[in-house]
Design goal:
By secondary structure, this protein is mostly helical. It has one domain. It contains 3 helices and no strands. It is elongated and about 50 Å long. About 5% of the residues are buried.
Length: about 70
């Protein structure tokens, strides 16, 4: 659940750090590695929300968390 709260801040920090800075191979590599790590964290948080919801689909908070990651 902590990851759900920290991901927006991490995404914003990524934007601030790398916006208009991907102009060298070194910066591009660092940016891609950081972005990949953010995607891994996002995937884990989404899986957590989905699994938590699957245990009790009637729980409103679990439905809310799952809906944050639902794609349609």
């Amino acid at each position: 659940e902590q990851a759900l709260k920290s991901l927006p801040q991490e995404a914003q920090a990524f934007k601030v750090q790398y916006e208009n800075q991907l102009n060298t191979v070194e910066n591009l590599e660092k940016g891609l590695n950081t972005y990949a790590q953010l995607l891994v964290e996002l995937e884990r948080a989404g899986n957590y929300a989905e699994l938590l919801h699957s245990v009790d689909t009637s729980d409103a908070e679990r439905q809310r968390l799952n809906a944050l990651f639902s794609t349609q």
